[in-house]
Amino acid sequence: MELIDIENLPGGSAAPPVRVGKVTIAEEAIAQEMQYHPADSVADAQLKAARALVVRELLSQRAQELGLAPIVDARGVENDEAMTDLLDRELEVPEPDETACRRFFEANPQRFYAPVTFRVRHILLAAAPEDAQARDAQYHQGVELLEQLSRNPERFVEFALRHSACPSKDDGGELGWLSPGQTVPELDRALEHLPSGLHDRPLASRYGWHLVDIEERVESSPLPFEQVADRVRHTLFEQATRRALRHYLLALEETYGVEGIVLDEEAGGALMQ
């Protein structure tokens, strides 16, 4: 089964000493683990780190009880294969049926849309972000070129060959069909909201200024269930796996005992009978 991040269980607070059964998790270990759990504050990072180590220790004790391979080797390195073997053995996650998949699809139509796509050509007037003089000069050249293109749009290919710093100049500036995420973020955001046609102002990016012509635009549209059935099934299976894993960890917390931190202060071990 695919491993899922498990350090984000809700609730709880960390206060040393933290123990799992008879094993004490040292403050030094928590401090070392904090580097892997960025947070808005030191206290939050410490809490996330402590939870992660508690979860690891719970799984380690369960694997030892079952006579399975150690979750953590002698060097203190986690054994992902051993953890996967343990969870495959312990967790029972049913595959969602078609009825559940269709119900989820109908309740969340916004999650299953084809993205907007656009056929684009451009002319890149290169200028580094820190070169204010070059950016100013290139911007003004871009304005002049756009004024000429507004009167003579057929010259776009000519101008691309003469002025563009992008390799697409050899194709007349053609970038082909694009969807969100396929260009640099600053240009990507602009393209998503522009109408078809030649944009009347140069668009800025980290590379310089872009003269953009959207030749064709296809708006976002809903996808049929049959086309996204596998995505829906995967989403539901992942959700079910997260729930099963959460319940399993809470059951281990109750079985072995955890001090100094709780994985779920609202429900505790009562979720698992």
Main traits of this protein?
single chain, 273 residues, alpha+beta, Chitinase A, domain 3, 2 domains, five-stranded antiparallel sheet, three-stranded antiparallel sheet, 8 helices, disordered C terminus, rotamase
Portion in helices? 40-55%
Low-pLDDT runs of 5+ residues are: 6-14, 265-273
Shape: elongated
Give the radius of gyration. Answer: 28 Å
The chain-level structural class is: alpha+beta
Could you give the distance between the termini? 24 Å
Total strand segments = 10
Main sheet makeup: 5 strands, antiparallel
Rounded mean pLDDT is 88
Number of helices: 8
Compute the number of structural domains. 2
What series of H and E elements makes up the topology? EEHHHHEEHHEHEEEEHE
Beta fraction: 15-25%
